[in-house]
Amino acid sequence: MNRPFQMAATLTAVAALLAACTGPGATTAPTTGPTEPPMSEAPSEAPMSEAPATPITGGLLDKVMTAGKIVISTDPAYPPQSEQKPDGSYEGFDIDVATELANRLGVDIEWATPPWEAITAGGWGGRWDISVGSMTITPERLEVVDFTVPYYFTPAQMAASTESGITTLEGMAGQTICAGEGTTYFHWLQGNLDFGPGGKPAPPPAGVTAVTLPTDRDCALAWQSGRFDFAGWVSAEPTIDEAIADGLPLVKVGDPVYSEPLAVAADKSGPDPSDLLAFLSDEITKMHADGTLSQLSIKWYGEDITKDPSL
Question: DSSP letter at 203?
């Protein structure tokens, strides 16, 4: 896979950020009401970790531990990362990672399904506590949310509709390409995706026009329904693989165009998230070491994409 830049400096910046998290005043972001599907069993046999004995008074960890539950935002239609089943429960890689973290924290989960743009905009208004939704760490997002260390690294992949006849990345030049609203893929198509110290990925094909739909998956579903006016789609490679496996009319084009670090996020404008994110970062580090994340990645993606490609 083609991964044309290094991520080590980005991870150092995130670690430093966790040591001193602050935030501006809160605003309100719209969200749908949370649901409470049954929790799945933790995938690892590691003993449940103890939360810090003295959380910051009034901080996010204090709020979560007092409530005995953590409200986590997810996408109801983003397989294999997350998907709501007919019975109302959720499944996917992000769902299993979130469940494992809640188990190690010792609290229940309540799910919320706000729009992706509301999550990345910050100002959650306390509607949900954290996002375990494959969010990429970028300098722009760091202005409004704080992150844990990454729990996995996903390649971004370009795809073309079978009707377009395009078979190479170069063939995408001058075409209209779809991406989810508020995603790094959309910013990449516009030529302004920035990973801070980690650098910028390679530029998109020349002269492309970017269009958005509410989620990544909507781009592929538009092809399936026959209602579309774009030739290409860019999304996480696992999401495109899932769409191909589902029989949607598209093909992967070229190698992955970049790789991105994905982490748990919390709103800066709400209760101080620093102690909760520090605890979750420590647990994610343990989950890397004890093989939990690798196991979940292989379960959902058929390969281990939890290793930092820059190392």
Answer: P
**Given this model, what pLDDT does residue 198 score?**
62
- Please, which residues bridge with residue 267 across strands? 145
CATH superfamily of 8-153+261-301: Periplasmic binding protein-like II (3.40.190.10)
Residue 142, Cα to own-chain centre: how many angstroms?
A: 14
Mean pLDDT by groups of 10 residues along the chain of 311 residues: 35 38 35 40 49 77 97 94 96 98 97 95 97 94 96 94 90 95 93 77 92 89 81 93 89 92 96 96 97 97 91 75
Question: Do β-strands 108-112 and 130-136 pair in parallel, antiparallel, or remain unpaired?
Answer: unpaired
CA distance to 1, 99, 242, per residue, from 173 (Å) = 21, 42, 25
Start-end ranges of CATH 3.40.190.10 in the chain? Answer: 8-153+261-301, 154-259
Rounded CA separation 184/157 (Å): 12
Amino acid residing at 116: W
* pTM for this predicted structure: 0.76
Sign of the CA dihedral running 95, 100, 102, 107: positive
**pLDDT confidence of residue 102:** 98
**How high is the pLDDT of residue 199?**
65
State yes or no: cis peptide before 76, omega within 30 of 0: no
At position 147, the amino acid (one-letter code) is F
- CA separation for the pair 11, 22 (Å, rounded): 19
Residue-level pLDDT at 185:
95
* Type and span of the H or E element at 220: helix 216-225
Q: Which one is the CATH code of 154-259: 3.40.190.10, 1.10.3720.10, 3.40.50.720, 1.10.600.10? A: 3.40.190.10
Q: Token pair of 67, please?
A: 């409530």
Between CA 116 and CA 208 the distance in angstroms is 24
